[in-house]
Amino acid sequence: MHWIDLRKHAFYGLLIGGALRGIQSGLLATSLTLGLLLVAQAAQPSRDKAQSQASKTIDRLQTLSAQAQENSDWIAAEDYLLRAQYQLHREYGVTTPKQQPIVNSLATLSIQSENYQKANQLFEFNHFVSQKTAAPADLQTANIALARWYLQSGQYERAATLLASSEADDFSGTDFVPERALLRLNVARFTRQCCTAKEIMETTQQAQNAGLSQDALRLFLQAAAELLIISGRPMDAATYLQSAEMTPNKPPKIIAGKRRIVQRDPNRDLNQMERRKIEQLLYARGMSTDPFQTDSLWKSGPDTVTVRSSGEFLPIERPEQSEVGSQRQFHTLIGHPLRFRKSDLRQILPAKYWKKTTLDNLEIRMTFTITTQGRIRNLKFDAAYDREVRKLMRDTLKSIRFQPELKDGMLVTRENFKLVQSFQSQGEA
After folding, report:
1. Which of 72, 146, 290, 304 is disulfide-compatible with 127, CB 3.0–4.6 A?
2. Cα 45 to the chain's mean position, in Å?
């Protein structure tokens, strides 16, 4: 055979050999892939079985928690829920959305035990989970849920900020979300800067154009009417109340919200008698009498008063000022229908009311006139009360607004309206 033929045969041999090796490598890779697939398929039933078993365990723990709550065994109820959450973390990860109902239940237990700080952390954790895992539409729902908690717990500025951020980040193309719009109106009653009359009317018009049910629309009209009264537009408010098709004759009621109490200038010069009285009061309470060290203690009464809008509102609030650190302190509010910080009442009321039993039994009965503007006139006390008690109520009621009496579709002045203010520290919500 010619040497050229030998080279040709050798060349073809290399080609064939390479091809065979390629085929072998391909077959090996395919075999490995098929092997891994078969292993995964074989493991899938066991994984599904494990998750199914975990789901059964979680359901059982939630059932046990519910039974413990029925028996008022709050410690056991919380323990079962925490174990259920741990199981979910093991199976699906720390940020799994499957845990959110359990976290809500844990937050509810914290509220029942008056651990509002912990409840706040849990609600915010649920919102964090939604931010990590939820679709845009679901995240909007999560924003509304957290804002509603902020409103419920007295964190009004946080609620307003979250709602504004939610509107700015709404990429769904939906200009009007009824739940969010109504919540924004309700939050506005508790913030210092209320929305303008134009914004109120525009929001209400959007609600009227949205095809809502009569009950849902009535909520919008009521909220808008109250805000317009606060804004000094009672005639526009009357129009909304009439449109709501409410009872033609409706008695006055206090408008829910947080209001700054109108008082005398705390920086004014005190006469000798007033200064001596304040010094004695501070000394009796073990406080410094240096006005430069305890300037806030020299004020004549509480700064704000709150009126709840429903039984869902808790007797707590968070200070509007930012606090150092991550821990947020919640303050207990007492009183009905007007709610004050308990610490503020201790500051202004006579020492005999420092005892809980004495404060619980304090009832202030008053009679006054409610104008068509929703303001109070001709305040009279129905019994003899301490000077500090009378001053507290006079200063407070100056800032309160009422929805005036509605008679035959018109707002009218109501004379001899009676109000009883109590200060029970238990059972207030």
Report:
1. 146
2. 44
